[in-house]
Amino acid sequence: MKKPGVKDRIIETASRLFYLNGYNQTGINQIIDEAGVAKASMYQHFRSKEEIAVSYLERRHRLWTDSLMKRISAVDAPQDKIMATFDYLEQWLKEVDYRGCGWQNIITDLPVDQTRIREQAVFHKNEVKEVIIDILQQAYTTEKATVLGKQLMVLMEGAIILSQIQKNPWPIQSAKEAGASLLEI
Amino acid sequence: MKKPGVKDRIIETASRLFYLNGYNQTGINQIIDEAGVAKASMYQHFRSKEEIAVSYLERRHRLWTDSLMKRISAVDAPQDKIMATFDYLEQWLKEVDYRGCGWQNIITDLPVDQTRIREQAVFHKNEVKEVIIDILQQAYTTEKATVLGKQLMVLMEGAIILSQIQKNPWPIQSAKEAGASLLEI
Amino acid sequence: MKKPGVKDRIIETASRLFYLNGYNQTGINQIIDEAGVAKASMYQHFRSKEEIAVSYLERRHRLWTDSLMKRISAVDAPQDKIMATFDYLEQWLKEVDYRGCGWQNIITDLPVDQTRIREQAVFHKNEVKEVIIDILQQAYTTEKATVLGKQLMVLMEGAIILSQIQKNPWPIQSAKEAGASLLEI
Amino acid sequence: MKKPGVKDRIIETASRLFYLNGYNQTGINQIIDEAGVAKASMYQHFRSKEEIAVSYLERRHRLWTDSLMKRISAVDAPQDKIMATFDYLEQWLKEVDYRGCGWQNIITDLPVDQTRIREQAVFHKNEVKEVIIDILQQAYTTEKATVLGKQLMVLMEGAIILSQIQKNPWPIQSAKEAGASLLEI
DNA sequence: CATGAATGAGTTTTCATTCAT
DNA sequence: CATGAATGAAAACTCATTCAT
After folding, report:
1. Every domain of chain B and the residues it spans
2. Which residues contact A136 (CB under 8 A, 6 or more apart)?
3. Is the pLDDT confidence value at D6 over 90?
4. What's the CA gap between D105 and D91, in Å, rounded?
5. Which of these CATH numbers, 1.10.357.10, 1.20.120.140, 3.40.50.970, 3.40.50.300, describes C56-182?
6. B12-22 pLDDT tens trace
């Protein structure tokens, strides 16, 4: 039982600050101060701020999808899993005071050269989309599952960003209703 | 027919830069250089960078909604107007190379104290939502129009942000399909 | 009678520090501290440290060649002017404690991308060479003056760098002797 | 026949980097990376970066003078040996793309406290000067050899630094001509 | 109403060196 | 004899804003 290593402390601190305050609003100095690490130690583990962000998004992808998988594994029927996904969004976003999606937030106002961050966002959204489609394939043909999955994915993304702007859960509820309609539940 | 005044030149230049390059990526110096005005002249018209952003969003709201209204006024049936809205999104986003929504982009990574920008985003999204609901009230009860309008609004927001991440129009097409399903077209 | 402007103070301070301590050994902070200028003020006048160095070398070229011209204008015969040039080197280098040549010193250990500094060094040395050749053309054919001028130029460069390494005037005296031999004085 | 030890690998790597890229432009990290040794291993063998530079210059002195001696041993007459020295300079500098003299390059922009490096430069230049004088003593009195040797030494130094600035062999050729004149060849 | 010089506090990144193992 | 993590200090540069004219 030892205290977490420097690299982990940096990632955890940066994850918190990047998500809550934003990537551009979070300086290297704040990260190292709050992580209790020397600046050069940080640059021993990460080549650049962008690389920290990539680690942040990789970690976030693991945690976020794990949470989602856990939640939807509690129910069996594909339609129930989709509804559970909307419930998951609602609960998560409420807990973080509608701070929105880490990937959406970071790519919207990014220095042009930081392409690895963009790749992370594309990857994450594709992975989530595949999860949705996989669920639907238990009830529909592959073709139908793909069509529906994309529609549900769009609904979820809209629910996240709109609830962030409005600081209100109604977009998530509307998305859930719309999702139910599309699934003809 | 005279050349635009200082204030307008600043707003126009800032609008272009804020939207295309991002709010945090655009410095005051770049704005005044490209607008061809002195720094202190700029601060005579705007108290702060945030205030320029507010003017940018006000102007953008006018232009964006005008374009939308013009587009949907070309058709009569409420359902057609909704479909035209999706077509409008698709064309617009293609033209700007899927640069996304000016309001979404600016609020996701913002200093905490810049509340007036947030207010602009809330206002804009509410206005657009009201436009959608107004259209639907021509075909449905107020209650039904409100419910459907919110769902369509969520779809549109998701289409914008997801097409931005993927640099691809498929989310807009999926949103349109889903919108058609919800309207039972 | 007003105090010198910020830009001049920066150039003068940087000139002193670059020459006496070296380009790499002189940081931006030291320059602005000793010049009594804010960092951003400095960057308003100079785009980069390299640009300060270019201004330093331009200024140094003016001052250095002016001093030389003044010295050699005191005598008439071309051979005397050349000897006066060696005397000038000897006196100058003694006064600066054999700190050597500003252009030699700056190009020998320079970041590869700073090409404008290299251009300054090439320019300065060519100008000095032309001064020498011009003098000799008063006594020799253009061809002979060119050949001899290059040889004298090499002697002078060697005298400067070798007196710098040895912290001793003997290389300048040897160069003067050799110069006299070459001119058959 | 075994692979070179850690210390030698460091010296060889540092020699290459210090000479080709410059002392200030070469970081400790680059040296240990390219030498494939751990940082603390390096500091086991060398107290500081300066000490590596001293070893680099010691090694360079051996290699450089050995090459020169080999070249001039091919001819017998003292005057031919001097001419061969100029030829050696020309060939060497062309091969290294006129990168100049390792000692000149390192002392011109150095932290003031690194005196041991300066000592190396003084030592090397004196040794070379003595080589020249020794050659000349085969044809002249000691006094005459000393006078001429110093003049030739200045010419060579000038040829090296000026060919470095101009990235051109003309200063070496001019130095050779001047040397021939001084030797009355 | 217009100007450009000046600023303090910030940014990200790199340096040579030391220490615990 | 070897290691890689950790460091304080410094590097060059940019930010939004203010002020005297």
Report:
1. 1-46, 54-182
2. A78, A82, A144, A145, A148, A149, A152
3. no
4. 19
5. 1.10.357.10
6. 999 999 999 99
- CATH topology for the A48-182 domain: Tetracycline Repressor; domain 2 (1.10.357)
Q: For a pLDDT cut of 70, what percent of chain D falls above it?
A: 98
Residue B74 gets which letter from DSSP?
A: T
Structure-token match 């919108």, residue found: B179
C23 touching D (Cβ < 8 Å): yes
Does the CB of D6 sit below 7 A from strand F? yes
**CATH level 3 topology of A1-46:** Arc Repressor Mutant, subunit A (1.10.10)
Q: Check CB contact under 8 Å for B104 and A165.
A: yes
**Mean pLDDT, to the nearest integer, of D97-101?**
98
Local confidence band at A139 (pLDDT 50, 70, 90 cut-offs): very high
pLDDT at B1 (0 to 100) = 40
Q: What is the pLDDT of residue A4?
A: 64
In sequence order, what are the residues at sequence separation of 6 or more whose Cβ sits closer than 8 angstroms to the Cβ of residue C28?
C39, C42, C49
* Side chain identity at residue B88, one-letter code: Y
Contact C53, C105 (CB under 8 A): no
CA B40 to chain A, closest CA, distance in angstroms equals 26
Q: Residue D156: in which H helix or E strand, if any?
A: helix D142-166
pLDDT averaged over every residue in chain D: 95
pLDDT per position as a tens digit, A21-46:
999 999 999 999 999 999 999 999 99
Topology classification of domain B54-182? Tetracycline Repressor; domain 2 (1.10.357)
Cβ-based contacts (< 7 Å) between D 40-69 and strand F: 40-41, 44-45
Is pLDDT above 70 for C105? yes
- CA B181 to CA A183: how far, in whole Å? 10
The pair of structure tokens assigned to D18 is: 């210090």
The answer to whether the C-beta of D139 is closer than 7 A to strand F is no
φ/ψ region of D167 (left if φ > 0, alpha if ψ in -120 to 50, else beta) reads left
Q: Does C139 touch chain D (CB under 8 A)?
A: no
Confirm or reject contact between D110 and chain C (CB < 8 A).
Answer: yes
Res C97: pLDDT: 97
Looking at the complex, report in whole angstroms how far the Cα of residue B167 sits from the nearest Cα belonging to chain A: 9
Interface with chain D: mutation pick from C23, C61, C96, C161, highest number of D CBs within 10 Å: C161
User: Above 90 in pLDDT, residue D119?
Assistant: yes
- Low-confidence stretches of chain B (pLDDT beneath 70): 1-4
What are chain A's partners, defined as 3 or more CB pairs within 8 angstroms? B
